[in-house]
Structures are given as structure tokens and as C-alpha cells.
Amino acid sequence: MDRVLPKRFWTTQRIALSGGGILIAALLAYTFFFADRRSKLNVEKDKITVSNVTTGPFEDFIAVTGVVQPLKTIRLDAIAGGYVTEKLVEGGSMVKQGDVLLRLENQNLRLNFLQSETEANRLVNDLQNTRQRLRVERYSQRKALSDLDFQINQAKDVFDRQAKLFKDKVVSEQDYVKAKLDYEKLVEQRKIEAESQKYQEDNAKMQIQMLEGTLARTQKNVALWQQTLNNLVVKAPVSGLLSSMDIEVGSNINQGQNIGQIDDLNGFKMRVGVDEHYNNRIFTGLKGSFEYNGEKHELEITRVYPESKNGRIDVDMVFTKVAPKGIKRGQSTPIQLELGKAAKATLLPVGGFFSDTGGNWVYVVDNSGKRAVKRNITLGRKNPEYYEVLEGLQPGEQVITSSYENFGDNEVLEF
């Protein structure tokens, strides 16, 4: 006889549905709470550059290019203008001090010189005539005083006799008074004559001084015009190599115009262009070095030019010892310019990543070696080989240092 069985709640169908729901819920919970939702990009490891972060001495230097120049370069500027009548030396020739290089002609200068010389001769004649005239006048003045002295002596003799006779009541008072007045008049005239002659003498001295001063200035002008005429003959101020002189016969040269330069070959220096980014770190006394013919040569900055051209500033560097043999003007060579002393630091090799991140973050390879994760860092100084790491990286870690141009904004790179 059949029996009715009780109905079961957990049927096979319900068990299957419940298990599926739990599985889906667990998957959703894992996805929401535990799954890595960072953006990822698959890359080929053999197409990127991975570098190790290391510890070592950071050498604070930059690589620059120096051009060999003579230690001294003397510019040839035209002291006097004119047109070229003769060119005796071509550019690229060795010259000695005093050698004539060019001859110029300037008719206006010659005319001014002749006028000044004529004026000087006229003043010389005027001065001689004035001195001669004053000498003659001085004789006339002495003669006038001598005549007055003679007349005074005569008048005094008459006055003394008249006074004695008037006292003895031999002559009248009128004769006595007349003799007295005649004598006193002559004495007064001599005083006036003496004062007049003194004034004339002082005036004559002043005239002579003025003429002498004018003559001296005119003669100085003559000497200057003569010197200017002499400058129409252009001579080498020093011995050396006349490196350039682009002037031809018949061309006109203005006063102050550059007509060439002479290089002193007794020494050389390096003209170096430095990025203006380092402007506040460049000063006289900084050291540098370069290799030439297998030997290392030391340099030192002696001059920093204040002007910036095309984002670069120029400095002059001289050899601390003798310049290397065989070096020639115009040669260029890479120079290692030291900006500071070496110091221990965490080092990251230089790479193309910097142009994409500005040095603010990098991709760091994890321990598995199968992925690289974006990480914020802080970089300090830079030399041609390494960046100085201030924060964010530890020695032994690996960093992608090639360009990040194709990685977009992905946070994880998978190899």
C-alpha cells in the first residue's frame, strides 16, 4: 500500500538556485571590495628601457661644448675715416707689431690740418708782434718818466731858490707860489704817469698770456690733426694672426668701423655656451675638464658674459696649465663643467620619461617583474647621466626610464 511522503523544502532546484545566487553575490562583493580597478595597458617589455635605482656619488656637472679661441683678440677699428688707397696685407697672414696694413685718404682731414696749422702760424706772428710792440712802448714809457724826473729836478731847484729868496724878501710872493705850483704839478704828473704805465704793463701781460693760451690750444689742435692724419695709416698694434680684414681698395671706411682683428697666438681659451637655466649657478672660478689626444685638461671660468643669446649665456674658460699641443682656433670639443662637489645620493639614470612626466612620477616594476605601477617621486639635481632622487624611490628598485608617450594615463603596465 502506497504511503504519502512529506514535501521537502530544499529541493535540488532550490539548492542549485541558492548556490548560484551566493556565487554571484560573492563575485560582486569581490569585484567591489577587492578587485584591482586601476586602468591597465599591456606593453612589450623588449620595447621599453628598465633601469635600476642605485646609490653612489652624484657628480654635479653639465656637458657643454667649447670652441677654441685665442686668449687675446685685438679688434682693429678705424680711428679716422676715409677711403682705402692701398691694402698691403690680406686676412689670414701673420703680422708684426707696427706693420702697415692699410693706407687711407681723407681730404677733409688734410684741409682741417692745414687750416689749423695756418691759424697757429698766425698766432705765433701776432704774439711776436705784440711782444715787439710792448717792448718799444716800454722804452717810450721809460723815456717819459726820465723826462718828468728831469723836469721835476729842475722845478725843485727853482722852487728851493725861490723859497730862500722869498724868505729873504728878495722875490715876490707871486714868483714863490708859481715855482711851488710848477714843482707840485710835475710831481703829480709823475704819479699819474707811473700808474698809467703800470696799468699798461698789466694789460700787456694779460694780452700776452691770452695770446700764449690761444696759441697753445691751437698748437694742441694741430698735433691732434697731425695724429689723426697719421691714423690714416693703419698699423698692426700687436704681433699675431690677422684673422680677418674684409676691406678692399676704394671702399669707404667710417670712423669707428671695425676693419678686422688680430689673434694673439701665444695662448688659447675656450668660449662655452651654457643653458640660461644654470645662470644662477655659473660664476668665475668654476672648474671644468675635457679630453684631448688621450689626456685630461683642466679649465677654469674667468669671465661670464651677462647677455643671453638664444637661451644661452657665454663664458670664457682658460687652461689652468699649458694649453694642449696641436689645438687650433675654431675647434670644438665637449667639456664637463662642474657645478658642485660630488655627494652620495640615490641615483636614477636619465631617460625620455622626464619629458612626459616632468620628473613628478614614474612607472616602478613590482617584485613579480610582470607589471609596473605609477608612483609619485621627487627629483633634485641632474647631470648628463643621472637624476638625484630625493623622495619616492629606494636603491634596488627598477624603473621604466624610456619615453611614456604611448602609455596614456594608465596606472598599471602589464608585460
Automatic annotation (TrEMBL):
Which UniProt key words apply to this protein? Coiled coil, Membrane, Transmembrane, Transmembrane helix
- Compartment(s) where it occurs, according to its Swiss-Prot or TrEMBL record: Cell envelope
Q: Give the similarity note.
A: Belongs to the membrane fusion protein (MFP) (TC 8.A.1) family.
Q: Cross-referenced Pfam families, in alphabetical order? A: RND-MFP_C
Kindly give the SUPFAM superfamilies that the UniProt entry links to this protein: HlyD-like secretion proteins
Ranges where the Multidrug resistance protein MdtA-like C-terminal permuted SH3 domain occurs: 346-403
Q: Does the keyword RNA-binding apply?
A: no
**Coiled coil feature spans:** 189-221
Protein name (record): Efflux RND transporter periplasmic adaptor subunit
The lineage, from the top, is: Bacteria, Pseudomonadati, Bacteroidota, Cytophagia, Cytophagales
Q: What NCBIfam families would the database entry show?
A: RND_mfp
Answer whether the UniProt record assigns the keyword Transmembrane to this protein: yes
Give the stretches traversing the membrane.
15-35
